[in-house]
TrEMBL record:
InterPro entries: Cell_Adh-Cytoskel_Orgn, Ig-like_dom, Ig-like_dom_sf, Ig-like_fold, Ig_I-set, Ig_sub, Ig_sub2. Keywords: Disulfide bond, Immunoglobulin domain, Signal. Residues 78-166, 190-257 form the Ig-like domain. One of its GO terms (molecular function) is axon guidance receptor activity. This is Basement membrane-specific heparan sulfate proteoglycan core protein.
Length: 261
C-alpha cells in the first residue's frame, strides 16, 4: 500500500484517465489541494492521498510508484444551478419548475420535491420526471389553483452531500367582483350611506375610492365608501378601483345624488 511506504516524490507517477501528467500539470494539480512540489519532502509518505480526496473537482486519478498502483476517484456533492426565485402563472395554466445539476456526482443522485416543506409525490396534478442522464428533475403542476401558490423546493442528494433550492410560485387569479357598487344612488340629505366595493383575486387586491369631481380620496372604511350623514356637497361621481399589480384594474363608478329634505 502506498499509504504505508516512504516513497521519493520523484518516483510518483500521476495519471489522469490513463494519461501521464507532466511536471507542470502535476504542480497545477497539487496547487488545487494547496500543495506544491517545494512543500513536499523528498521522502514524504503518501499523506497527500487523503488531501487529494478532498479536491472539489471530479477526478479519475491513477497514482503509481515502484510498481504499485492506486486508483482514486474523487467526487463531490451536487450543486443545483441558480434560477428564478419567483414564478408567476395564471390560474388554470400549467407551471414548470426545473431543478438542474451544475456539478457533482450524478451516479446515485436522487431528487425530492417539496411544497411548503411537505414532500410531493408524482400524481396527475404534480408530475415529477427525471432526465435519463439524471442531470435534472422537472416538476409540472397541472391546472393551477389558487392554493397551489407557495414555496417549492428541490433537494438533490448523492453519497457525498446534498443541495437545495427554493422557488416561490404565485398563481395569478384574475380580478373579479364579489360586490360591485350600483351605478346610481339617491340618498336623502342627513342619511348615513355605506357603499361596499369588494373584489377578489390573487395576489389579493387593494380597494380605493376616489371622488372624480376633484380627484380627491373619498371617505372610506376598509372597502366601503362611507358617510355618517350625507350633505348636498357630497353629490358627485365616485370611482372604486381594485388593483393587485398583476392584472388589469377593476373599475366601478357610482353617481351619487343627495336629495333635499
Amino acid at each position: 500500500s502506498l499509504a504505508h511506504n516512504h516513497i521519493a516524490f520523484s518516483d510518483i507517477v500521476f495519471k489522469y484517465y490513463g494519461y501521464s501528467l507532466t511536471s507542470s500539470s502535476r504542480r497545477l494539480f497539487l496547487e488545487l489541494v494547496f500543495i506544491t512540489d517545494s512543500q513536499c519532502s523528498s521522502t514524504m509518505s503518501c499523506m497527500w492521498l487523503a488531501v487529494l480526496i478532498s479536491i472539489v473537482l471530479v477526478y479519475n486519478l491513477a497514482i503509481s510508484a515502484n510498481g504499485a498502483e492506486v486508483n482514486i476517484t474523487v467526487s463531490k456533492a451536487p450543486r443545483i444551478l441558480d434560477q428564478s426565485e419567483k414564478l408567476n402563472y395564471p390560474e388554470g395554466t400549467n407551471a414548470t419548475l426545473m431543478c438542474s445539476i451544475g456539478s457533482g456526482e450524478l451516479d446515485g443522485l436522487t431528487y425530492e420535491w417539496l411544497k411548503d416543506d411537505k414532500r410531493l409525490v408524482s400524481s396527475t396534478r404534480y408530475r415529477i420526471s427525471i432526465a435519463p442522464e439524471n442531470f435534472n428533475s422537472i416538476l409540472r403542476v397541472i391546472d393551477l389553483k389558487p392554493d397551489d401558490s407557495g414555496i417549492y423546493s428541490c433537494v438533490a442528494r448523492n453519497a457525498f452531500g446534498k443541495d437545495r433550492i427554493s422557488i416561490k410560485l404565485q398563481v395569478k387569479v384574475q380580478l373579479k367582483w364579489i360586490v360591485e357598487p350600483d351605478g346610481n344612488l339617491q340618498v336623502k340629505v342627513g342619511k348615513p350611506l355605506h357603499v361596499p366595493c369588494i373584489a377578489d383575486g390573487q395576489p389579493a387586491p387593494r380597494t380605493t375610492w376616489t371622488r372624480l369631481n376633484d380627484s380627491t380620496p373619498a371617505r372610506m372604511l376598509g372597502y366601503e365608501l362611507r358617510f355618517n350623514a350625507v350633505s348636498q356637497e357630497d353629490s358627485g361621481l365616485y370611482e372604486c378601483r381594485a388593483t393587485n399589480g398583476a392584472e388589469e384594474d377593476l373599475l366601478a363608478r357610482v353617481n351619487l345624488t343627495v336629495l333635499g329634505k
